[in-house]
Amino acid sequence: MTTVIETCRIPPPQGVAVELFLPLSFFDMTWLHSNPMYVLNFYNHPCSEAEFFNTIVPNLKHSLSLTLKHYLPVAGNLLYPLDTDALKPVLRYISGDTVALTVAVSGLDFDELVANHPREADQFYDHLQPPAPLIEQEDYKIAPLISMQATLFPNRGICIGANFHHSLCDWRSIVGFVKAWALINKSGDDEVFVSEIGESLPVFEKPDSEASRRVDGIFWNAMKKIPFKTVESHPRPTNRVRDSFILRQSDIIKLKNMVLSARPNLVRVSTFTVAAAYVWTTLVKSHGSAGDEDEVFVFPADARGRRNALFDPPVPVNYFGNCLGGAVVIVEHRKFVAEDGFVVAAEAIGDVIKAKIYDGDEFLKSPENRLSMMSKPERVFGVLVVYGSPKFEYKEADFGWGAAKKVEMLSLDDEKYGMFLSNSGDGGLVIDMSLPKEMMESFASIFEDGLIV
């Protein structure tokens, strides 16, 4: 259904640094053995194959090269040592490194792919390439960090797909990179990007403190015990469907009022708190009884510019890489099925945010504790993981075709339960889910019914 036309190698322009070495921090090592991150932007832009191949593709190649000048690590590779006792992993760029850009034409129905109803998850993987195989060279296994794909839907639209290794960067950073590429593509050069960013051009030096170096060692000692490999094919069949759900601004106000009516002493009830609690409660109800087991909710929190227990001063906001704290919320399953299950979930999430995120003395305190969360305790039935953030909108990347019609985070398929959050554009939120078909039907029914007055 999708025909690959070419895969080309895009280097940074001449005149950039000859080499760059960046040791991995514990922020990066967290993701060494996780699957790649797959994300797609679908754009409404009717154009012919002639326009696509003669104008759009050459512009994308040129602008990607210019963007790499400012994001040099993206063009590099992850080097994983063969002798893990003697060496540690690094991100390395050397002259000659490139980013793979695949150009393709799709025969799939664009409007079906961007619709807000259940769609088979497998079909989306035609719009990006799986990671390249590992190469062994001297003392290291070498893994590319990112690849891109531009896919034309003739006379209907364009999809820009990104496949990146999470040890390269987190969501805020990849959004910044793709937005930069889009802006440079739209303007034709990098002058507008440089003038808009000014002194906030990305910086790559890893966050460092005496305490963080201790944590780096703890993480490496744990991670090097796991064999390093990359995923060389897409996870098909996924046996899943994807769907999007809207929480309108009026819905969010209603949910906040429900919480405050039941818990008037709560100081702050945020949009994130009620949205996450509502999705979590809906999901728990849709997957059935779990007896006395626990339900777990995991969400990230950007550590840049935030007072914390590990770095003083905090990590700069223009740091490119991984810089995520976060928190874990645990609630007994039986409390969800009670009449006030949603309120209980919202209160639990709010309490953890207040205690672990807003308190700078607690945020990033003992980050090595997250290692224990990588293995699920026996009493846990389900774990819901948050992807994305309405604060860093991937869909806003405008290549000259306007904002994206739809963003699809394919990495949701890797989780038993995951949710991707983005703005709806009118004060509400979009929640993307990937679930088995029958469970998605149950989730959708409970989600809609719960919003009816």
TrEMBL record:
Superkingdom field: Eukaryota
Database matches in InterPro entries: CAT-like_dom_sf (IPR023213), Plant_metabolite_acyltrans (IPR051504)
Keywords on record: Acyltransferase, Transferase
Gene Ontology MF terms: acyltransferase activity, transferring groups other than amino-acyl groups
Pfam family, one: Transferase
Annotated transmembrane regions: none
Protein name listed in UniProt: Malonyl-coenzyme:anthocyanin 5-O-glucoside-6'''-O-malonyltransferase-like
